[in-house]
Amino acid sequence: MRKRNWKRVSPRSLRHAIELCLEYGRERRNLSVDRVADLMGLPSKWALYKWMESGRLPAVLIRPFEHATGATFVTQYLAASAHKLVVDMPSGKPAADEEVLELQSACNEAVNQLARYYRGQADAEETVSALTSVLGAIAGHRENVARSLAPELDLFGEGEE
Q1: From residue 34, how far is each of 18, 28, 31, 39, 78 by CA, in Å?
Q2: How far is CA 121 from its chain centroid?
Q3: pLDDT tens, residue order, the chain (161 aa)
Q4: For the chain, what are the domain ranges?
Q5: Scanning 47, 56, 103, 160, which has its CA 20 to 30 A from the CA of 17?
Q6: For domain 9-81, which CATH number applies: 3.40.50.2300, 1.10.260.40, 3.90.950.10, 2.130.10.10?
Q7: In whole angstroms, what is the distance from residue 30 CA to residue 24 CA?
């Protein structure tokens, strides 16, 4: 079975976002629902199942939930539902050749997906997901380049001497 490429997954609903976070935690961190509930400080896993069923995760528990699972699909869904684009904070480091090639490959795949959609051969949700993923990646690289214009201080001596 092929592993899921988590960078290209987009939640379709709040319930789906919660499910994706739990799947990510299970696949990447080997976390059960019991363990996620424990890391969030909940008395039992049943509250988490109730929120997943109803799609009503309390706002004050979104960050603890995402921190416990290691995924931010709930935040991504909330931003996307408000017609906002979420971009990961850039590291400020220059991109490696592999990262630029991955970006180019993702752009090509997204444009191909768009062409298939307009021909009636692709699903709208998959197309939106592919385009959103590429827009976020490009915006991250744009911010990295913009940060290079005004470099930050190297406070902890991690740079060159």
Answers
A1: 15, 16, 8, 9, 25
A2: 26
A3: 567 888 778 898 999 999 999 999 999 999 999 999 999 999 989 999 998 888 889 999 999 999 999 999 999 999 989 988 787 776 667 778 888 998 999 999 999 999 999 999 999 988 988 898 898 888 888 888 877 777 665 555 555 44
A4: 9-81, 97-149
A5: 103
A6: 1.10.260.40
A7: 9
Locus of tokens 């940060």: 147
